[in-house]
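Annotators were shown the component list below and the corresponding predicted structure, then asked to write short factual statements about the assembly.
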Amino acid sequence: MDFLIFEHPILIVQALMDGVLLGILFALIAYGMALQWGVMNIINIAQGELVIMGGYVAYFLYMYGIHPAYGVIVSPIVMYFVGIGIYKLVINKVVDKDLFTSILATFGISILMMQLMNFVFGADVVVAQSNFGTTMLFDNSVTLPNSKIFASVVSVLAAIVLVLYMKKSKLGRAIRATAQNARAAKILGVDTEKVYASTFGINAALCGVAGALIAITFTLHPYVGLPYTVRSFMIVIVAGLGNLPGVALSGMGLGVFEEFADYLLGTEFRIAAVFLLLVLILMYRRFKLARSREYLK
Amino acid sequence: MKKLLNRLVAIFSIFSLLLGFSSAQARVDGDVITLGAAVSLTGKYSTNGEHTKNGYNLAVKRINDMGGVKVGGKSYKFAVKYYDDESNSKRAAQLAERLIKQDGVKYMLGPYSSGLTKAMAPVTEENKIPMVEANGASRSLFTKGYKYLFAVLSPANQYLEVAIDLAVEKNGGKPVKIAMAFEQDPFSQDVRLGILDAAKRTKSKIIIDDKLPKELNDMAATLAKVKAVKPDVLVVSGHSKGALTAIRQISEMKVDVKMLAMTHCDASKLAKQHGKKAEYALCASQWHKSLSYKDNYFGSGLKYDKDFTAAYGYAPPYQAAESSAALLVYKDAFERANSFDTKKVRDALAKTDMQTFYGNVKFGSGGQNTAKPMVLFQVRCTGDKCENKVVAPTKWASAKLVHPVPSWSKR
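Structure shown to annotators:
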């Protein structure tokens, strides 16, 4: 146990802020995963690679002297079409198969994407400079990089746009109908094939936004996608499938929990602590389910 | 019965094929000595794998052009048989097996990275095949009692020890407060052990000892702690990702620390990618072109830099230089052994005591190079152009160490 955080209480504020900012960004990625998991019943192992590819789009702009923040506009457009392409090539063949098949297929896609990015951009770790500066609070004792604040604001905006789109637009309604009951939707004239393709495209576009934000807040490398996949998977599990508002909350919650675990238990346990929490939540869920099952009996 | 006979015949023919194969491609064919190497040409180490291969090739060409290797009064040429290990340690071990058993290679060169060297070393050791490696610095490679492994580079625990000594020196010989953040991989943890030794030796106190998970790309928590406790030195090691993340977040969070020492500044192109934000960072390096070592093949570091740039179109990172040095060591050992017997070559390697453009080479009992110190750069900028200047050891210093690092409010 480390009590540094109590000796310097200002660290609590820093940890909270860092956790929330980190969590919002992860929640955006998880949002795409939840959407596509809910609609298509596919767990996308290549989610992290879509994010990193989105990041490379922003980095590509940066290499040509364009500010990488424009990546949040360009990257989703590019990634939407990449997503549609992946759907047409592979996903449409596994969409109605069992979960294991789709996991294998997306795992294959993730390997392919990693090698492709390695081939095009090389194996070096790269960063795109935003030069956004820093926000200092409490007499400079809490420092928040503006790039992270920018990332959170953009993530929240992207999520709001998506929710509105899902509620108001025709395609959004079709997506929701397909998620509820694909067969019924099909009978009622919804082109589910098109719905699936768009859903996968929208997921890839969200990953594109997140990737562009990661390019200016963290680092890019063809092989660092997996942590993003795992993290978004966890956020979705904790929130519960089909619970989109829960995704934002669980993303931020896990972010804050991780930061505090770092301060209290040590950096080496921060990821372990998050996984432990996941196990506890799953056990609690099971316990609750078992109880309601008993009532039914 | 007939089935059994058929099977026996099949097994026998496979064996004879294998035998035929290995005798056809022996270790020395005519006047060519074939060395085996598995390097990462694809996968996450592909950049450094390429540097390694280019380093090997440049030295092979240079040695062959200058008369080759003289054994028993006859001149032989070097050739390297390469395989791509895909940056995968299992594949590296398989390829070592293949090079030795199928291709009949009797002398090996190392792969890139400690992890892959660790995977290959048991295979070469078991088959009693000498391996001169240039890119595996992990201390654990040299504590296993391997007899056939030789490394031309300094072991990982020496990487940043110099920085602690320097900090103590600048503190008027008094102990310092150290904060460390190391990734949880074999290499970085070895660097950490070196710092622990240096701290003990100088009676310095370690006030933060963070072990960063491999998948971590956010160091904000560690840096917030550093801001709160104000250490004299901050030491960071986590490959290229760690170096780039550290500089990005230190500059964004305005973390003021008197000395910042790290590894992989070269590999991550820190000065180029982060520019002025990286200024004053101290970086450990195996080699720098301005060091005054000399040999008959490449002349000096500066000449090596020129020749390498002419051949491959980019300036050689230390990974390339040390790979070239491995070939020079092999050549020297072959000539002293005056034989192709692997045992004799191994004994000659163990007795190596020479200078190359890359540094002095003399192997300790574990196979590590004990004759070459690490150097420390400091990133210095003039205008927007930043480069690495050697600041320690003082013998080779081309610039004076800036200490303490100016605070962010003044930069």
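Statements collected:
1. Chain B has two domains: 21-153+291-362, 158-285+374-410.
2. Chain B touches chain A through 40 residues (CB under 8 Å).
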